[in-house]
Each structure stands twice: as structure tokens, then as C-alpha cells.
Amino acid sequence: QFALEQSQWQACSYGKVYKESDESCITRRKSDNLKLNKWNTQLGEITAYLNQGEHKQLTFLIKQLAFFCKDIKSMHDLSVIGLYMQISSMLIQYINKYELSERLAPRIGLYPLYYIHNFENWREAFGYLEKLVNIMFELNYGGLQDKNQRLVTHIKEYIHAHLQENLNLSALSDVVNYNSTYVSRIFKQTTGMNLSDYVTACRINKAKELLHNSSTSIHSISEKVGFDTCQYFCMVFRKEVGITPSEYRKQK
């Protein structure tokens, strides 16, 4: 009888005590778990927002989380603790990557990232995360244009050093650890060229150099500059230069 009464008067995920049936409480928990699972799938966006300098999107996401968790009274709710610690882990990785800890220290304490017991409620906890993110962006994205220029320079240097390899958008985005859409947009904004057109131009320029300064066969040159077949290389070369590789070599 005591066990039955205890199950009827139970604290659900919001920490409030309700006299309700087991079925009602189970339904409530399932609903909350579905919402938490939805948030777990969205956590991957945080790293992308950080790396891409998407300040508004990241703070909006944290505000949504704070609103979702505001009525959860228990600071021992493992599901919410899991969400908070996952976000903390991403922020810690970012702070370490860009060596921000010493610059952050005078502005905000970092220990709440891994020690949450001083927070009185989850709204306060997620408010801390939002404040931290605001300071991080202020410190690291004040020179966003310089950052974008460094990114483009890195991409260009990699392309010139790896012409023989796969240099499509997806591969280059993996190299610099940025979202492919962001890489494409920043490269076009900074250089005025599509990334694929730049790769092609680099390959053709290198091919022209080899055609004039070496006796390497056209087939070998096509491989050295990253074309799958000699036939495709000759077709692209003629389209870009106006003559075939053989004709270009005869001009030297």
C-alpha cells in the first residue's frame, strides 16, 4: 500500500509533486524525453556555429534550451545535466583550440563549465552559458575579416601543395574543419571566384609550367595536377587556354 501511494505522489521531471496515475506520469516523462532527444540531435550545430562565427544562431539556441529547462526544478535531473555538460565540453574544446582561457579569466569564471552545483536553477545555468558565449565571440571574432582571410589563405596553400589529390568542396572543408556551405561562401566573398574554378585554374597553371619547363609526358602531367584521365585533362586545358596541351608545349 505504501509503495502504491508513493507511486501516485511522485515527482516527475519538473520536480513538482502531483497526485496522478502512473500512466499520466509515464506519458509526461515520454514527452520530456522526446523533447530532450530532439535537443540532443541539435547539439551538433553548436560546434558549427562556433567555428563559423554565427553568434545570433548560437545564443538563440541556448536561449531556447534555457526556456525549455526553466521549469525543471531539480538540479539533479540527469537528462538536463547531460545536455549542459555536452555544451560545456564543446565550449571547452573551442576555448582550448583558440587559447582563450587566459583572456576569458578576467571577464568570467570558467569553473561553472564543469561544476554546476552553485547554480540555483537551470535558467541561471544556461544564462551563464549564454554570457560566456557572448564574451567568447567578442574576444575571438572582433577580427572576423582577418579570420576569414586566414581561412582562405590556408585553403589556397593546401590546394597548391596537393594538386594531385581530391580537392572537391567536401574534402577541403574537412581539411580546414569548417562547414562546406560556409567554406564555399567565404571563399567566393573573399576571392570573387568559386572554389572549384580556383582549383581548376591552379591545376591548369601548374600544367602550363610543366609543359614549358619539363619533358614530362602529357599523360604524366595530367596525373600530377590531379585529373582522372588524360582525355579529360586535355578537354579542360583546351577550354581554359584555347589550345591543346601539345600545341601549348610547341610554343615554348
Observed structural traits:
2 strands, disordered N terminus, mainly alpha, 252 residues, 14 helices, single chain, two-stranded antiparallel ribbon
What does this structure look like?
With 252 residues, this protein is mainly alpha-helical. The chain has helices at residues 2-8, 22-42, 44-52, 55-69, 78-97, 101-104, 122-140, 144-161, 169-176, 180-191, 195-213, 218-224, 230-241, 245-250, and strands at residues 9-11, 17-19. A two-stranded antiparallel ribbon has the order 1-2. Strand 1 (9-11) and strand 2 form a beta hairpin. Helix 3 (44-52) runs antiparallel to helix 4 and helix 8 (144-161) crosses helix 10. The longest helix is centred in the first third of the chain and has 21 residues, at 22-42.
Query: Care to count the β-strands?
Result: 2
Tally of alpha and pi helices: 14
Strand order of the largest sheet: 1-2
Give the termini distance in whole angstroms: 99 Å
Order of helical and strand elements = HEEHHHHHHHHHHHHH
Radius of gyration: 28 Å
